[in-house]
Amino acid sequence: MNTSLTTEEVRHIAKLSRLALTDGEIEKAKEDLSTIFEHISRLSELDTNGVEPLDHPTELQNRTRDDTVGEVLSQKQVLANAPAAKDVYFDVPKVLGGDT
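RE: above sequence
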C-alpha cells in the first residue's frame, strides 16, 4: 500500500478541514500523515482472526447500587456547609446582568 501523500493531497485535506496552512506546515503535515498511514498499513497486516472486537479498550463495567433513602440532613445542617447563606437559601454571586 502506498502510504506517502502528495503535496496536492495534503492541500486538499487541509481545505476540507478548513485549515489555512503555510507551505512549511503543508510539508510537515505531509510527513506526519504519511507516518500515520504507514503505521495503519502495518496494523492492517496483523492477523486478527479469533480476536473479538472491543467497544471500549478497557472493558468498563457499570457499578450500580440500589437507590435507597438514607439519613436526611436538616436545612440547618445543609446551610452550615455552604460558603455563604442568606436566610434559608444558598448565597451565591450573581453571574448574569449588572452588579449584585
